[in-house]
Amino acid sequence: MRAAGTPAMGPDASAIVVGSGIVGLATACRLAETGFRVTVLDAGGGPAEGSSRGNAGQLLFDRVSAMGSAGFLRSLPASMADRSQGLDIWGLGLPGRWPWSIRFLSQCTGAAWRRNTAAMLELAHLSKASFHGFIERHPLAFDWRCPGKLIVHPTEEALAAAARTAEFQARFGGRHVVLSSEEARAREPALQGGTRPIAGAIHLPDAEVGDCRAFCEGLAGILRERLGGRLQFGTRVERVRHAGGRAVAVETSQGEIGADLFVIATGRAAGTLLPRGAVVRKPIVGVRGVSLTYPAGDVAPDLSVTDAGGKFVVMRMGDRVRVSGFASFTERLEVAPEEIALLRAKAQALMPEAARYDEAPEAWAGLRPQTPDDLPMIGRAGFENLFVNAGHGSLGWTFAFGSAERLLDAAGLAQ
Ligand SMILES: Cc1cc2nc3c(=O)[nH]c(=O)nc-3n(C[C@H](O)[C@H](O)[C@H](O)COP(=O)(O)OP(=O)(O)OC[C@H]3O[C@@H](n4cnc5c(N)ncnc54)[C@H](O)[C@@H]3O)c2cc1C
After folding, report:
1. Start-to-end Cα distance in the chain
2. Cα 268 to averaged position of ligand 1 atoms, centre (Å)
3. If you placed Cys at 355, which of 81, 321, 370, 405 could pair as Cys (CB 3.0 to 4.6 Å)?
């Protein structure tokens, strides 16, 4: 099965993937499918204990957009003044983050946004094909649906700007329709009776949703039971040991483990394990987000809905409804009661009966592993047989399978 050009490895070659989030698990499964004996190592106690656990569950394969743009800078004063948006950029001023912040600022131009968004769309389309191929080969239960998505905008001006963005994204494929306020409410009855301003919406008929944590657990099962892989938890990787220009082993809290090929897929922690000279090295910061998961209410949404003005998402996963939002440059993982109250109030104002808002939600905070240009680091990292796949920002699930394909390609393993 292995393509010619794979770095000096026999038919029974072994691979270590460090990280059992969505990116590490997708990579491990695809490597195992090409014939590697794969071991996944993770410091945590099980799959998806990092950023992949409670995310917003969006698989947005054809309307992704880079965070850095001229518009982002222009909107900062208003976004910061409106506390309910949960945007907090003060952490970017910390000296340790200056390298990231300076590079991010250089991406906040129209030209950089178009370049980065085009590259993200290319990766996302690749991901869509790879993801669908994988779940066809290995059916999995993860509350997956393809209901489509509405992105509602509070003003005509914001809607017109979003329509221009969607036209740019459409050059790369996918469908969208611009809807009036009445059409949006008719399309998603859970919006009826809501009090948040809606001037109109962009409807994405092909958007998909699911439970990323359940998907990761499913991937771990497939790796173990069908693809002959192993998962070893409670194993922190401290360092990659190399000799003669090749990585030979990882030094871990459980001792040294050798392999023929190594992949670092540790999300925002990737930088600490990469050798200094790694070509694809970029700074990564954690952008904190929060999700609240409630039992579904009497009028739970069918479509996933993003409120662009309030910067939050509401979606249904089986008999639960998840509300996600906030973007702050802090590493705090506890969720404060005021944050729960704020996010709940916004969701309730958008869709009054979508969830059992009176019940205590499952509250979660995670850190999006964000690079300055929103593009993940994928490729060879200093040694012939050491690779990195990390820094997927707010789209790690969407990008996971495309990134795995890119990694196979970089390793000369593409089929
Ligand atoms: C609120 C929120 C909403 C989001 N919504 C979406 C969405 O709707 N759609 C989407 O596509 N993306 C979304 N994302 C982004 C997505 O969740 C992330 O991009 C993705 O989870 C990153 O996956 P990962 O595997 O790179 O990292 P992680 O899931 O963080 O996994 C990294 C793993 O590496 C392990 N690790 C770290 N260091 C070591 C070490 N030294 N040794 C051993 N193990 C180590 C950690 O224990 C962890 O298990 C969202 C993120 C957040 C926070």
Report:
1. 8
2. 8
3. 321
Among protein residues, the one with the nearest Cα to ligand 1's atom 41 is 237
Axis crossing angle, helix 22-33 with helix 396-410, rounded to the nearest 10? 40
The string of pLDDT tens digits covering residues 202-251 is 999 999 999 999 999 999 999 999 999 999 999 999 999 999 989 999 99
Measure the CA–CA gap between 244 and 6, rounded to whole angstroms.
18
Q: Whose CA is nearest to atom 17 of ligand 1?
A: 52
Q: Which residues contact 309 (CB under 8 A, 6 or more apart)?
A: 152, 153, 154, 155, 158, 196, 197
What is the whole-number distance in angstroms between the Cα of residue 10 and the centre of ligand 1?
Answer: 32
Cβ contact 340:361 at 8 Å: yes
Question: Residue 377 belongs to what H/E stretch?
Answer: strand 377-380
pLDDT digits (tens, 9 = 90+) for 173-199: 999 999 999 999 999 999 999 999 999
Please give the distance, rounded to the nearest whole angstrom, from the Cα atom of residue 161 to the centre of ligand 1.
Answer: 30
CB 264 within 8 A of CB 382: no
Q: Distance between CA 202 and CA 374 in Å, rounded?
A: 23
